Amino acid sequence: MAPPSEHLDYKMAAPIEAGERRCQYFVERKKRYCKLIPGIGKNYCGEHILFSSNLIESNCRKRIPCPVDHKHTIYEDQLQKHLKKCNAKVKQNYVYYKKDINAGSGDDALEQNEVSISSMDQKHLNSIIFKVKKCYKDAKIMLQDEVLDHEVFREELDNSMNGISARKHLLQQASLLGHLKKKKFLKNETSFIEFGAGRGQLSHWLQKALSDSTDVKFILIDRGHNRRKLDCYHRNHGPKFERLNLDISDLDLASVPGIKDKGQPIVGISKHLCGAATDLALRCLITFNSNTDNNGSTTESKSDIPKEENVKVNDQEVNEPMAKRLCASSKDTPDKRQVSGTVFALCCHHRCNWKNYIGKEFFKEMDFSPEEFRVMTRLTSWAVCGTKKNDESDHLVNDTESHNQGNTSETAQTSLSRSGGMNAEERAEIGRQCKRLIDLGRVKYMQGHGFNVDLVYYIQQEISLENVVFIASKSVKT
Q1: For residues 318 and 312, is the Cβ–Cβ distance under 8 A?
Q2: Between 320-329 and 307-314, two packed helices, what is the crossing angle to 10 degrees?
Q3: What is the pLDDT of residues 389-417, one digit of tens each?
Q4: Closest by Cα among 137, 143, 135, 136 to 468
Q5: How far is residue 228's CA from residue 17's CA, in Å, rounded to a whole number?
Q6: Cα 143–Cα 146–Cα 152 angle in degrees, nearest 5
Q7: Contact, 357 vs 276, CB < 8 A?
Q8: How far apart are the C-alpha atoms of 62 and 88, rounded to whole Å?
Q9: pTM of the prediction?
Q10: Contacts of 227 (CB under 8 A, 6+ apart)
Q11: What's the pLDDT at 308?
Q12: Closest CA to 257 of 95, 92, 99
C-alpha cells in the first residue's frame, strides 16, 4: 500500500507519475513501489490485489498466502487447483529433493539479526580488523597468478562483434576451461555438474571443448528460471543438458537418476557461485561421496576385511590368491562414482552466512565467533566495491561490474566513515584478507575429506575483481 508521505524512510521512493500504469503497492523491504503492471482499470497487480479497498477490483474474492511457499499469494477458492501446479510443490516431489540436506547447522535466529558496520562501536570494529590481519599473516596465504586459456575460444575471442563485457566473460570462461584441462578433468566418461548455472554458458563452452567425447553428461542446477538459455544449441548436437530447478540446499545428488544410473566420475564447475551457494555446493558434493561410500560403493575398503584375515596376512599364513586380493583392497582405489574435483570461480563473500558455511571448525580454531564471522562477511565488500578517490571529493566511486553490485551492507560513504582513516587501498586489502580467510576455511574442509585444493588468481583483476578460482582434486593414495 502507499506509504505515508511524511515518513522519512520513504522519501527516496520514486512516486508514481500521473497516468503511469504501475501497481500501487509499496514494497517496504525494497523502499519502492511494485514494478508489475496491473490489469486495465485496476490499481494493483494480481499478486497485490488483496490490498485493494475496491471490492469490484478484487472481485470480492479472498486472496491468501500459498501454504507451500508464502512468498506468493493465491485465490482461496483456487487453492486445490494451484497446489497441483505450484512450482514450489513440484520441486518437493522430485526424487532428489531433500529439504536442507546441504544447509549445514546453525542458529537461524542469529542469521536474522542484521550486522551493520555503521552501528558498531569503532573500537570493537578495529579489534576485529586487527584480528583479521593477524590471522591472515599467521596463515601465510599465498596465491599464484595463473591465467590460462583454451583453444575452443580462439575464434570467438577474435570476433570483433563481441563488446567489452562479452569479451570479459569469454576470457574468464577460457581460463576456467584451461584449469579444467590442466587438472585433466576434460575427459570422456565424466558427468559435469554446473552449480548456479544461469544460462549455462560455462557448460556450453565445455560441451564444445568435449565435442569429440562420446560419453559425457551435463547437469545444470539453478533455483531460478532463466531466459535466453544456451541449452537450445545442444538439442541435436552432442549430449543434451539436463536441468534441475531447485535450490542447492535441497539437492540430494546421489538420488539424481542421471547420476545414479551413469556411474561416472563427477566434476563440479561454476562461474561466480555467489556466497553461501559455494558452501552448499561443496557440502552437496561431499554428501554425495559419503552416500556412495555407504550405499553402493563397489570398492572394498580395509574395514570390509575380516579381522582374522588381516592377522593372517600380517603373519603370512594365507594362500597367495587371498593375499593378492587383500593387498589390492588395501589400496584406496577411488570409486568411479566419486567426485573427481571442482573448479569454482568464487564471488560475493558478503552473502555468506554462518549456518551454511563449511569452515566453522577452522574459524573456531582461529577464535572467531559467529558474530565476528558475520562482520567479516560485511567487510569483504571493501575488496570489490571498486573504490577510488574522486578528484573533487573524498567520496568513493563504484567502478565494478554489475555482478558485484548491490547487497553490500553499507553505502560507500558509510564505509568510508567507518574505516578508521584508512585509504581505499588499505580498505580493499582488509576486504581481500577477509575473503581469503573465509576461503581458507573451505580449503581446510575439503582437505579434511581427502582433496588437494588450490586457490589461484585465474584472471586479471582489471577484468574481474572476483578473480579467484577454487580448485579441488581428489587425492589418490599409492
Answers
A1: yes
A2: 110
A3: 433 333 333 333 444 444 444 444 444 44
A4: 143
A5: 32
A6: 150
A7: yes
A8: 21
A9: 0.74
A10: 199
A11: 36
A12: 95
